[in-house]
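Recap from last week: sequence in, structure out.
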Amino acid sequence: DRIRYDTPQWMGFYGSGSVGNNSIWDVALNYAADFGWAKFAAAGAWADGGSSQGWDGQFSSSASMLFDFGLNLTVAYAERDTDGTDPWNIFGKVGYQFLEKHAASVQWGRTENLSAKDDKGDTFGLAYVFSPWQSVEFYGTYYLHMLDRDEGSDPDDINVFMAGGRVKF
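Predicted structure tokens:
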């Protein structure tokens, strides 16, 4: 069970907070604005796992900007406070919307210490979306997942290809 409160928006800022069973709680601050030449959104949050989670707290944040000429940028960072490994993640994406119906992007992410101390995982991704009509999208993506493990096994890289479509009603 959880109780949540969202503040009213003020000059693009708004916040939220919640409390739940087993002493779980979280707070977030968000900002969004349309500058005319670009749209911007950012958020940061802190969550406390209380007595029911295997971690003490976690911080997460992200920011995205969409320029009116089609370029879009996203960055994100997160970290978790645990009793040993303290995993963290960083992510970045550069995309471009062009010819009104097409969008492409390239992204990279790194996660360290998630499964075991000193693990380093990298993900590279490419994506393309074609929107022939406002309610229809076709997409294709490629992801390369790599894990560098200092001790133990040396897992193979994972290649993932996906294609599909979506119809919005």
